[in-house]
Description:
Radius of gyration: 19 Å
Largest sheet: 4 strands, mixed
CATH topology: CBS-domain
CATH superfamily: CBS-domain
Strand content: 15-25%
Amino acid sequence: xxxxxxxxxxxxxxxxxxxxxxxxxxxxxxxxxxxxxxxxxxxxxxxxxxxxxxxxxxxxxxxxxxxxxxxxxxxxxxxxxxxxxxxxxxxxxxxxxxxxxxxxxxxxxxxxxxxxxxxxxxxxxxxxxxxxxxxxxxxxxxxxxxxxxxxxxxxxxxxxxxxxxxxxxxxxxxxxxxxxxxxxxxxxxxxxxx
Length: 194
């Protein structure tokens, strides 16, 4: 074993980011916009967690979607920041629950109501194919499922796609795939792909 040298951070003012040389376009392979759970740890939450606590957690962590697990750690749905809106919480309270008793499972989108893109098909698609497919979904995220293992393999975020395509969208805005498509239609360099 050897001791490594430690450096003083007085002169480290920036943070390295991936190279901007790799320009992502609508013709790029769809895999470049995919968050692969083989590489990135998925953000998960238990179904029994307090909805109010999770909303605050998501806002502080700048996370807009969490995968929901049951007590046996099986995937049972997703919860988005939009699902945790004050209106939805008030409706749950009007149903007889106390605000602190409203759980993620009361507001989540259950697995049975979700659709996903296929992992294998994603490797034969372009960014344009994905956006075209998801344009009418009115969703901020799309799950990707591995048909062989029957597992959620990752996800695609409309906001991530817009950022990777370097679209002019307001910082911190919550985008749906249809809105990404609308922004693309206003960009001359993308119109020819529509």
